[in-house]
Amino acid sequence: MKYVSTRGKAPVLGFDDVLLAGLARDGGLYVPQSWPSFSEPEIRTMRGLSYPELAVRVMRPFVEGCLTEDELTALVADAYAGFTHPAVAPLKQLGRNLWVMELFHGPTLAFKDYALQLVGRLFDHVLTKRGQRVTIVGATSGDTGSAAIESCRDRDRVDIVILHPKGRVSEVQRRQMTTVQSSNVRNLAVDGTFDDCQDLVKELFADAAFRDELNLSAVNSINWARVMAQVVYYFHAAVSLGAPDVTVDFAVPTGNFGNVFAGFAAKMMGLPIDRLIVGSNTNDILTRFFEGGVMKTEGVVPTLSPSMDIQVSSNFERLVFHYLGHDGEAVERLMGEFRRGGTLAMPQGAWSVMRELFEGHRFDDAATLAAMRSLASATGEVLDPHSAIGVAAALKSGHIRHDAQLVALATAHPAKFPDAVEQATGIRPGLPPHMADLFQRPERLEAIGNDAAALKAYVRGFAGRARA
Q: Domains in the chain and their CATH numbers?
């Protein structure tokens, strides 16, 4: 399997190099040169597989030439061994054709664990083979940071620095990051928004000399390995509900577009998916795009669903690349216009084709609380604000058909957002036993301004102590 950049100028790479590179050297994102595809009979044979067995089956084509099947099997088994539900990603029925898939049974209680528990092990495996060390720099709107830290803590060949927007993540989310005392982990609270954090990371990667000096790598969903591992739970849900003989659509609460892009990848690989429904909060740039074909940035508004408080959805570039016929020059031109002027206008024909698969719905905080309250009353399900937006988008879409199943993704445990859950339902969810003392653990973090030069100096100093 070979991978190409969405901007067409970076070298074509194999999986191991893509894993370590993260962002392509031309500023683009790596995608498979061609999509592996499963036939209907092959998808039927996936029924009844355990989650780890299915993960190996789905991901094997993506790592061809880098990992043997035995190596992948061992890494996958280890990655999911600590998940707290035997199904790993259980489905719960909310209505005749409506389901919720719980993606919060990993160590940090969010869907990011499903990819990052594997990605951390992939880094260790590849770096040990090569005798190399990397410095991971990542930005988080809340959940990626804790999942990345958990997957990379105490690993011999990885240093990790995570940026989060100061005061714009929940207290549980922050403490899950800042209470990890491992010597190879650092947390920075940035004076700005998630988009500012993301821009700082991209600026570091754009500095080729700095990137090479510290062997920078990424664990954000700009890293293809993240998306690859997320494709698995779309197959898991679909085959559990009867695919390929049944159409299974998905509703996804979305910020950086990586999660829903994994659903798009699953469709490209043969899953019968007719609709991908995007749920947004007040920061509704994606919903506005699917309504009108123009992506225009506005100011980021803090909400009850902070992991979606994003205006620049990095993974959207991968979708643009697909719908522009893999024209890297056109992608680079459009993304350049978006970066300079805050507006991206898709060609009308390409947008119309996108709309055949995608739709978007927005929910402000009042609507989110109402959805949480209604779901708890009607079904007994207590959902966090992000997951509630996913279910609300599914219900609003009007695409719950008698001949198809619709799965909404529950992306975080309600205990990660106890204040919002209690406000909506009167129930204050408790943390699971392994996190019961989270609020008693000492924190370690440092504040930093929205300044790339200061960030470079910090990362150089931190990573340099391990290389001295």
A: 87-106+224-425 (3.40.50.1100)
